[in-house]
Amino acid sequence: MDQLRTNRVKKKRRRKKIWMWTLLSILLIAIIGTSYFFYTAQGAYNKSFDPLKRGDKSSKREKAVTMQDPFTVLLVGTDVKDSSDQNWRSDTAIVAAINPKKKSIKMVSIPRDTYAEIANTNGFKNKINSAPYYGTIKGVGPMTNTVQTIENYLNTPIDYYVKLNFKGFIDVTDALGGVNVNVPFDFNMRLFWKNYTYKKGPAHLNGHEALGYVRMRKEDPRGDFGRNDRQREVVQNLMKQAMSLNSISKIDDVIKAVGDNVNHNLKVNEMLDLQSTYRGIPKKNTNTLKMSGYDSNKNPKGIWYHYIPEQERLRISLELRKQLNLPLQTPDGKPYNGKIPEPASTTPSSR
Predict the structure, then answer these.
(1) Which family, according to the similarity comment (predicted)?
(2) Predicted confidence (pLDDT) per residue in 241-285, tens digit
């Protein structure tokens, strides 16, 4: 029994790809949005542009929005290594609600095992990361089905999306010439059947080394908190490097990585607007909403799901709708006139 539980934990950890993909997605779009794009990156744009199979707006909108209005971006990290594997599931999914006038962002991460109703399945419920699979078999498309599932779950429109695969992080880091970090303590990390050693103090890491650096949790005495600090460190340093790029050869390498590893539904002018909006938002105005839930396999099939209490789902939905200047509603679309509930305390996992 202990071995089975250990194997479950190890499997869960392997599946938890880095949340930094989401922030790097914004970074990548900002890079694409440079003037250099118009001269050399048309091919990369054509490869990465993949519009959703819907009209010009979300079904949760009365009218289409622009990036002068409050809008959302769904940031997805897939569980596949590169673009050759089309049988993907969403391993990281974060909704970023951006209000240009308030110069603020509210972000919420949706755990991949969250028990939710999957769009276009007549009410069937499963892990939310299975939405791409059902989108494929139903002919809707994996990304469109993912968007619609999350829209329905949070009662929040998804206006834009950016999808990044596992290899994208490595390629972009290498294209930027690696990343400088300050290793907090000595540790070892095994990644892709290779061992990496990290010594306390300043270090310069390539793509694979950086991935190992941000994924390690087991040897960190602070657990997820320590890993989150390392992730923020790497993201911030990469973004500084990207924003200060002055080498045409490096820009070209990054654009190639974008074309091979990123999909999105942003038009060129929207990329430029996103770049401008993102740069104008102070760090202090970026707020991460934590959605508390619990793991359980107490169901007829004995499958482990992550359950979000309805009160928590309501709270997150209201927070996002308020950020977007939308009328407050319950997740099922009914008017809501009360106060936004307080965050729930974290419920212990049953695993």
Answers:
(1) Belongs to the LytR/CpsA/Psr (LCP) family.
(2) 765 555 445 656 666 666 667 788 988 778 778 777 877 888 789
pLDDT in tens, 194-239: 999 999 999 999 988 988 887 787 788 876 557 667 766 776 677 6
Assign domain 177-244 to a CATH class: alpha beta
Domain with CATH 3.30.420.590 in the chain: 2-167+253-323
Element housing 13 (H / E): helix 2-15
Distances, alpha carbon 143 to alpha carbons 269, 306, 345, in Å: 22, 22, 32
Fold of the CATH domain 2-167+253-323: Nucleotidyltransferase; domain 5 (3.30.420)
Nearest to 126 by CA among 143, 109, 145, 139: 145
Burial class (CB in 10 A: 0-12, 13-18, 19+), 1: exposed
* pTM for the model: 0.77
In the predicted model, what is the mean pLDDT of the chain? 81
Q: Which of 192, 213, 195 is nearest to 204 (CA)?
A: 213
Q: Where in the chain is the domain with CATH 3.40.630.190?
A: 177-244
